[in-house]
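lol ok so funny story. i was supposed to be doing the assay writeup but got distracted and ended up predicting the structure for this chain instead. priorities right. anyway since i did it might as well share w the group, maybe its usefull for someone
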Amino acid sequence: MKTISQYVGGWLLCAAAMAMLPACAILQPVEQGQKLIGAPQSTVRSTFGQPTGVYQLADGATRWLYSKQPMGYQVYAADFDASGNLSGFRQMLTNAEIYQAKVDSWTKRDVEEHFGKPREPVQFFALMKREVWSYRFRQDGMLPSLFHCYFDGDGVLRQVQITLDPLGGDSNRSK
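and the output, tada:
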């Protein structure tokens, strides 16, 4: 005969396993992309398709972004060296990447190179005189949230904000 603590322990183990399932699904494209490190652009394109954005970075590298926005929580970056070979592949909408945004330094171009063009409607707050771009992401890998970037009239990032996603979370959303 099982005790209540055994039932609760089993339930907690099952709940923890279920909570990890979305994280496993999200990591699969990153793992697949990282296996292609050193491959030419043609191999990456045949694996992931046409990128949603292509950027020439200041260091001479090229970045392809694969956005799952507006309803998905991911933007994947495929970075290529000057020879056109894949040098890195990662998910850009993570806490670590978002916290790199430099207020009073980054411009719209910097934000776009990191997270892609906004796919949520761009907002303008007249009293603040700020244009706001928003991106869905999972804060700490779990909590459905929005990352907001506030730009002044010169296109300089002046404020960032993280709020809860009013649409909530759904593990069936685009990965």
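The CA atoms of residues 27 and 169 lie 17 Å apart. Residues 4-34 form the longest helix (31 residues).
back to the writeup now i swear
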